[in-house]
Amino acid sequence: MSAKTHHPEVDRPWAIELRGIEPIPDSERHGKPSELFWIWFPANIGVLGIVYGGILTAAGLNLWQSAVVALVGSALSFLLVGILSVAGKWGGAPMLTLSRAPFGVRGNLGPAFISWLSLVGWETVSVITAAYALLGLLGLLGLPANSLWTVVSLLVIALLVVMFGLLGHATLVIIQQAATWILGTLTVLVIIFLIPGTQWSKLLDAPWGAWDSGVLATLSIIMAGTGIGWANAGADYTRYLPRGSSDRSIVGWTVLGATIPLFVLIMTGVLLSSRVSDLASASNPVEVIGDALPAWMAVPYLITAIGGLIAAADLSIYSSGLNLLALGVRLQRHKAVLIDGVIMVLGSVYVMIIAQDFFGPFISFLQLLADGLAAWVGVFLVDMLLRRGYDPEGLRWTDPGSPYYYSGGIHWPACIAWLCGVLVGLAFTVSPWFSGPLAKGVFASSSLGYIMGLLVSMLTYWLLGAVLARGQVAAGQRERPGES
C-alpha cells in the first residue's frame, strides 16, 4: 500500500477502526483497488490448497485436466467475489448490510445469521489448525504436546487474530501486504523442496479422467471450498474505496490476488500426490505435507502454514464482527469482534481439549452451511443487476421509514428465491449431518449441490424480481457510480 494513501481518522493503521456497518461517506473514502490483491493473496496461502491438488488426482484427473480445473475453479469462484465486491464501492457498506437491500431489513436476518455462523466457524477451524501447527513447531524445540502447551499455542494464535480484527481495515491491508511477501517467499521455498520428488512419469502417463464425475465434480469442490466461502465478505474490503474506483479493477485485483496462490498450491498438491497417495484423505494434512520435506525444512514450513491460517482467520473475524452488527446487535465494531473472539476461543478449547473427535463433524456442519451462502450469492448477484446502486441512508434504517423495509421488513421475492435455492442445494448435498434425496451419482461425491442452489436462486429471483418486484426494487434504486 502506498505511503501516500490518505487515511481518515476513523480508519488509520494501527488504531482501532471507528466505523461499523454504517455506509462510508465520500469524505472518508480512500485507497485503491490494487489493495485487494494484498488482501486476498495471503488469505489463500494455506495447506488446504495443496490438499485440493490431491483431491484432483484422487478423482482420476490427469495433469492437464488438473491444471484446467485448478485455474478455472479458482478464477471463477473469485470472479463471484470480485463482482460482489463492487457492491461495497457502490453502497459504502459491508456485505451483509448491503444485503438488506434485496432481502429487506428483517428478511436479511436469515442470510446474515448463516453468514455469521459460517465465518465464526471457519475462523475457529483456522485457529485450531494453526494452533496444532504451532504445537508441532514447539515440539521441534523439545516442548511436550500436553494440555498446557496446547492452550498456550491456542491463545497465542487467537490473540494475534483478534488483535488484527480489532484494529480493522487499514491495519489489515498493511498486515496482509506484509504477509504476501513473507509467506509468498516461504511458500516458494517450500515448493522448491516438494517438487524434486515428483514422479513425472506417473503424472504424464495418467489417462484422461471422466468429465462428469471427475472434472465437473472437482471443479465444483474447488469453487465451493475457495471463492464461494468468501463471497459473503467481499464488500467488507471495498467499502472505503472512492466512488470513482474502476469496477473492472476491483474485480481484476480480487481475482488475481486469490487465483495466483491457489493455482500454484493446487498444482503443487497435484505433483505431491504422485508420491503421497493419501494426501487427499489425510486427517492431518499439515503433518503429511511436512513429512514430504527434508527435516531441516520443518521450521520454515510450519511458519508458512501458521502464517497462512492467521491471514485467513484475521479476515474472517473482521467480517464476522461486521456480520454480527448486521444482525442488529447494537455494539461498537471492535466489541463485536471481541465477542466473536471469545466464541472462537471457547470453540477451539472445546475441540482441542474436551472433544477432539468433534473436529471432523464440525467441519462437515460448516460445509453444509455453504448451501445457504451459495443461494444467497445467487440472489445478491441478480439484485445487483436489477438495482445497480444503493441508498446509503436507507441501509442504516431498520424501521418502516427505510426504503428497504418492503412488506413488514421482508422482501418476499428475494427470501422465497433464497429458500428455494437452499432447499434445492440441500436436496443434492451429501454430508455426515444430512443426505439429500437427490444426492446420487455425481452429486454424491461433489459440491454440485451448492452450484445447483446458486443457479436456482438466481433464476427464481430473476423471474420474481422481473414480474412481481420491479416497483419495490426501484424504490431503493440509485444511479450507478461512474467508472474511472
From TrEMBL:
<feature type="transmembrane region" description="Helical">
    <location>
        <begin position="250"/>
        <end position="273"/>
    </location>
</feature>
<dbReference type="GO" id="GO:0022857">
    <property type="term" value="F:transmembrane transporter activity"/>
</dbReference>
<keyword id="KW-0472">Membrane</keyword>
<keyword id="KW-0812">Transmembrane</keyword>
<protein>
    <submittedName>
        <fullName>Permease for cytosine/purines uracil thiamine allantoin</fullName>
    </submittedName>
</protein>
<dbReference type="Pfam" id="PF02133">
    <property type="entry name" value="Transp_cyt_pur"/>
</dbReference>
<feature type="transmembrane region" description="Helical">
    <location>
        <begin position="37"/>
        <end position="61"/>
    </location>
</feature>
<feature type="transmembrane region" description="Helical">
    <location>
        <begin position="362"/>
        <end position="382"/>
    </location>
</feature>
<dbReference type="InterPro" id="IPR026030">
    <property type="entry name" value="Pur-cyt_permease_Fcy2/21/22"/>
</dbReference>
<feature type="transmembrane region" description="Helical">
    <location>
        <begin position="67"/>
        <end position="88"/>
    </location>
</feature>
<dbReference type="InterPro" id="IPR001248">
    <property type="entry name" value="Pur-cyt_permease"/>
</dbReference>
<feature type="transmembrane region" description="Helical">
    <location>
        <begin position="403"/>
        <end position="428"/>
    </location>
</feature>
<feature type="transmembrane region" description="Helical">
    <location>
        <begin position="178"/>
        <end position="195"/>
    </location>
</feature>
<feature type="transmembrane region" description="Helical">
    <location>
        <begin position="448"/>
        <end position="469"/>
    </location>
</feature>
<feature type="transmembrane region" description="Helical">
    <location>
        <begin position="147"/>
        <end position="166"/>
    </location>
</feature>
<keyword id="KW-0813">Transport</keyword>
<feature type="transmembrane region" description="Helical">
    <location>
        <begin position="109"/>
        <end position="135"/>
    </location>
</feature>
<feature type="transmembrane region" description="Helical">
    <location>
        <begin position="293"/>
        <end position="315"/>
    </location>
</feature>
<dbReference type="GO" id="GO:0005886">
    <property type="term" value="C:plasma membrane"/>
</dbReference>
<feature type="transmembrane region" description="Helical">
    <location>
        <begin position="336"/>
        <end position="356"/>
    </location>
</feature>
<feature type="transmembrane region" description="Helical">
    <location>
        <begin position="215"/>
        <end position="238"/>
    </location>
</feature>
<comment type="similarity">
    <text>Belongs to the purine-cytosine permease (2.A.39) family.</text>
</comment>
<keyword id="KW-1133">Transmembrane helix</keyword>
